[in-house]
């Protein structure tokens, strides 16, 4: 940092404008100086007036850049290249039946198993970055090492984004205002472009389209979920997305998953929907609280998925026509 000129600092870390403003430092015309030289040329009176300590300020600037980089997810070592699940035990303390499970960005893993078998528990282990300190005794590694405590405790540096069946807004904002606020809180540079992109993607997922002026409280369940999924995919810094059953979500689930993995997310989802489970590369079978098997999706299953997608298309068309109050005609439905 010491060797960088103010111009270079601003170029690399545009958010430092705020730091200079907050400290009432007028840097105009001094951009070619490094920060310490700039401070040195300020006269005593000015330093006193602005309550500036030239010895500490460079260190404060360093710390500001560090904190903001973490907040914005810019730190290189924040990049998640792999998520590893190490085995624990089931509800009867029987060891789990796998060595280790490594999941890479853009991969989808489904979690299947009967009610109460422990699907949500597995998602919670990942969210909490378990280190043999949950009822399952599992451990989670990020980039093949025990995760930094910052993943657990920092509210701004969330490892994981959660998407669930129930998503309701309680704030009184339009879609545009909501997206702008979120983009600002993430210090996104091209806030308008991002908001437009999120709205466009959300509308591809939602059954009924909505506009940027729609109040978020008037969005239907499906529209809210579509908005949250598009927002998570495009704006959220969380590299891992956990989905707890989006079966009845009223959105195009296939497109939702495609959008998430197109943004390099690691996706784990608890689901019994064959259309979703077979989109995954692998599925974890949970029984009695433990991982009983990790199955690769076979070629036959992928072919079956294509057929089921065609069936799903038929069902969707019929549903759309019914909703529009029309009489169903087989020749229109089975195209
Ligand atoms: N290995 C384990 N050891 C002890 N308790 C466990 C273990 N796995 C899960 N549990 C507990 O079992 C209960 C049921 O688990 P969970 O809610 O994760 O099931 P689920 O498969 O998500 O169920 P549903 O399909 O009904 O949502 C929870 O209280 C959970 O903490």
Automatic annotation (TrEMBL):
<keyword id="KW-0449">Lipoprotein</keyword>
<comment type="similarity">
    <text>Belongs to the ABC transporter superfamily.</text>
</comment>
<dbReference type="Pfam" id="PF00005">
    <property type="entry name" value="ABC_tran"/>
</dbReference>
<dbReference type="InterPro" id="IPR027417">
    <property type="entry name" value="P-loop_NTPase"/>
</dbReference>
<protein>
    <submittedName>
        <fullName>ABC-type lipoprotein export system ATPase subunit</fullName>
    </submittedName>
</protein>
<dbReference type="InterPro" id="IPR003593">
    <property type="entry name" value="AAA+_ATPase"/>
</dbReference>
<keyword id="KW-0067">ATP-binding</keyword>
<dbReference type="InterPro" id="IPR017871">
    <property type="entry name" value="ABC_transporter-like_CS"/>
</dbReference>
<keyword id="KW-0547">Nucleotide-binding</keyword>
<keyword id="KW-0813">Transport</keyword>
<dbReference type="InterPro" id="IPR003439">
    <property type="entry name" value="ABC_transporter-like_ATP-bd"/>
</dbReference>
<feature type="domain" description="ABC transporter">
    <location>
        <begin position="80"/>
        <end position="313"/>
    </location>
</feature>
């Amino acid at each position: 940092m010491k060797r960088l000129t103010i111009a270079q600092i601003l170029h690399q870390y545009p958010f430092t404008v705020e730091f200079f403003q907050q400290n009432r430092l007028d840097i105009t015309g001094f951009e070619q100086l490094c920060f310490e030289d700039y401070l040195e040329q300020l006269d005593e009176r000015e330093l006193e007036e602005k309550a500036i300590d030239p010895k500490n300020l460079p260190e404060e600037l360093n710390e500001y850049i560090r904190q903001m980089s973490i907040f914005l997810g810019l730190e290189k070592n924040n990049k998640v290249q792999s998520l590893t699940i190490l085995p624990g035990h089931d509800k009867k303390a029987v060891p789990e039946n796998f060595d280790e499970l490594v999941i890479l960005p853009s991969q989808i893993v489904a979690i299947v198993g009967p009610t109460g078998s422990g699907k949500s528990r597995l998602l919670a282990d990942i969210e909490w970055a378990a280190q043999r300190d949950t009822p399952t005794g599992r451990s989670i590694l990020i980039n093949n090492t025990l995760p930094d405590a910052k993943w657990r405790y920092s509210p701004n540096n969330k490892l994981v984004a959660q998407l669930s069946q129930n998503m309701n807004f309680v704030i009184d904002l339009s879609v545009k205002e909501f997206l702008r606020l979120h983009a600002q809180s993430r210090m996104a540079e091209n806030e308008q472009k991002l908001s437009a992109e999120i709205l466009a993607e959300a509308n591809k997922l939602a059954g009924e389209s909505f506009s940027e002026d729609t109040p978020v409280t008037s969005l239907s369940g499906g529209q809210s979920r579509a908005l949250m999924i598009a927002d998570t995919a495009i704006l959220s810094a969380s590299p891992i997305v956990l989905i707890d059953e989006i079966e009845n979500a009223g959105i195009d689930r296939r497109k939702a998953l495609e959008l998430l993995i197109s943004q390099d997310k690691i996706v784990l989802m608890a689901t019994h929907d064959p259309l979703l489970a077979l989109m995954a590369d692998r599925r974890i079978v949970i029984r009695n609280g433990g991982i009983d098997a990790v199955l690769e999706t076979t070629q036959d299953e992928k072919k079956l998925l294509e057929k089921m997608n065609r069936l799903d298309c038929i069902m969707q068309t019929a549903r759309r026509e019914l909703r529009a109050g029309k009489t169903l005609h087989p020749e229109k439905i089975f195209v």
